[in-house]
Amino acid sequence: MTEKEFTGLTSAQAQERLKKDGLNEVPEPKFNFFKEFLSKLLNLSAWILEAALILECILGKWIQSSFILLMLLFAALNGANQKRRSRKVLNSISKELTPTVSVMRDGKWQYINSKELVVGDLVSLKAGDILAADMKLVSGNVSVDESSITGESKPINKNDGNELFAGTTVVSGSGLAYITATGANSRAGKTINLINNSASPGHLQQLLTKIIFALCSIALALTVVVLIVAIIRKDNILDLLPFLAMMFIASIPVAMPSTFAVSNSVEAKKLSKDGILTSDLTGIQDAANLNLLLLDKTGTITENKTTVSSWTSFSSLSNNEVLKLAGEATDKRNPSIIDTAISDYLKSKNITYSQPNNFVPFTSDTGYSMAEVDDYNVKLGSFKQLSKIDPNAQNEISRIDFTAGRSVAVLINDKLAGVFILKDKIRPDSKKALAELKARGIKPIMLTGDNQKTAAAVAKEVGLTGKVISIHDFNEKTNVNDLAGIADVLPEDKLNMVKLFQKEGYIVGMTGDGVNDAPALKQAEVGIAVSNAADVAKRSSKMVLLKDGLTPILEILDAGHRVYQRMTTWALTKIAKTSELTVILTIGYILFKYLPISFNAMVLYSILNSLVVITIATDNVKVSYKPENWNIWKLTRTSLIICVGWVVFGTVFLIWLSQHGYSAGQISTMSYLYLVFTALITVPITRTTKFFWQSKPSNWIIYVELGDAILSAALAILGWAMAPISWADLGLTILIALVAAIIVDIPYHFYIKKVN
Length: 756
Prior knowledge:
Largest sheet: 8 strands, mixed
Strand order of the largest sheet: 8-21-20-19-9-16-18-17
GO molecular function, one term: ATP hydrolysis activity
Family: Belongs to the cation transport ATPase (P-type) (TC 3.A.3) family. Type IIIA subfamily.
CATH topology of the largest domain: Calcium-transporting ATPase, transmembrane domain
Number of helices: 23
Domain Cation-transporting P-type ATPase N-terminal: 1-61
Subcellular location: Membrane
Helix content: 40-55%
Mean pLDDT: 86
CATH architecture of the largest domain: Up-down Bundle
Distance between the termini: 70 Å
Strand content: 15-25%
Structural class: alpha/beta
Radius of gyration: 32 Å
Shape: elongated
Keywords: ATP-binding, Hydrolase, Membrane, Nucleotide-binding, Phosphoprotein, Translocase, Transmembrane, Transmembrane helix
Low-confidence stretches: none
């Protein structure tokens, strides 16, 4: 059968089958809160607490046992709840990140959401499509990656009559297929979406993991010091073990995954409302570090449409005959912007054309589409590619101005028949947005398949300064700072470019749309698929734009900087507070022969501190307008300024209390309050470059900190879970913490100003 003889469903037939079979989707299993809660009881920090709980039960210390159980339940409940929140955001995004499919309805090719596919639909397949239902190939040849269902990475060639399965990817070729099964009846048995589920951790997450390891190492070292001192003094080791376990647990950032997930999810939700979908959360965090951006010209710098500005014929055939043949070499099933531009041009000339006898769509490997029409073989593609087929083409083009736009040649029986010059319209926001990117310290480089002269003209028009070179002149010696753009770029060139720039130390962002852009989009720290991108490009990227232009990229950068600032606050707070707690406990034990805070108070401190830290994910932050650079030593030095101040004041306070007749229980309670109040003040200090009283945090931070302070004060006055103290002692502790905060913030403030 020829392509003309295949027909699809009518809209009425499709609606009838949709009512009968339902949408092409399978409801996602509901989030199992209890299962997630149980999983949080099976990790390293939980195991340590569980061991301490068993030990306390053996020793018959039921009150302490109940506090350990409280800590266990808090960590598990909090972790499960935050996972539920982030899962809800990602689920809402995944519903929007479903493939679109070219389907024939009522005798016309149109794009529909894959969820609306029904059995019997005739669909068009091309390279880069992720199949959303089971189907039978009836025309054409395709190569399919079936690793999602078989585990085999080698593509499988499929011909007429072969079955294709949902979830697999068309690697090359094209064809027509009839849908045979949808939704739960398909082999995959699940809804196909474009969320990237196999992403590796981002730079920020990797750094935070290093911080966790460093904190645990410090806590472990100090724990060993306390044990050695206890052995020398012949103290009861069994009595110390629960305290030491709790000290170690306090250093483990129980709230870190929650804070991290919430912060990213908050921004992902905000971006989705602005038409930017997040398929991989690491794309948001890495956007803060971005310092080099590779931009596809079409759809980003220029509008996602083009028009024919001139046509020159070189054929002995009449002008209308050549144009009609050129029209038959355009793709009607999956039209590109070039196909659309040529079709619109022919329509304006009242030239009609029919379906060819045989049609092979454009691929980046060949550089052209091809149609067989009666005795004519027609090729439509870039002049550069087609001139390799007709060596005489170069002699015919003296009267064509290639600087005027993109050239598309027509070959009839492998002889140059004509050249279209297509003009892209510059987006009105491009020049301003590119200037904004450069002001933020990001180097934008335009990538285009156009010739060098055309690319240079576009670069000049949008204010990109520097050289525009051909991809053939690009190598490891190319100075990035001298570049405005790279011309003659093929999609497969982009992966090498991204790797080379990363090798030179750049954090690379890239926009792309084609199937061959997918490897480069996946390699880039911030891969951005534009609105008309192939399914596989969307799945390989970290961000997907639903609208064209550069403005959405600026919004991604802002989101990244907000996450960076919040997680910087988290890192500085965590390092400072963990160091303060472990050092004060160690010094107190060495000086006074007991840990200067009760076990119950330590559990409460860990829980209340975690609650505050989680709210950092909602903080009001000031966006930085320069690429950030994560430096663990810089973070450590910065946080140690705060830590040293807290430790000095805390140690002096402990010594003063011990010399003025306070009991061990009162010292423990006042030490607990000092640690709580300084922890609460650390967040306002680390979240801003101003003095902490000059910048207002988010309402959530204020409410939770006030709640923590009031609860801790009430427990201390009432003597619940700790020894009671007087109102005067409470006031004294608050005063010491406030004085310490003001004195600590002064050197911290000037140090931050200096390093920034």
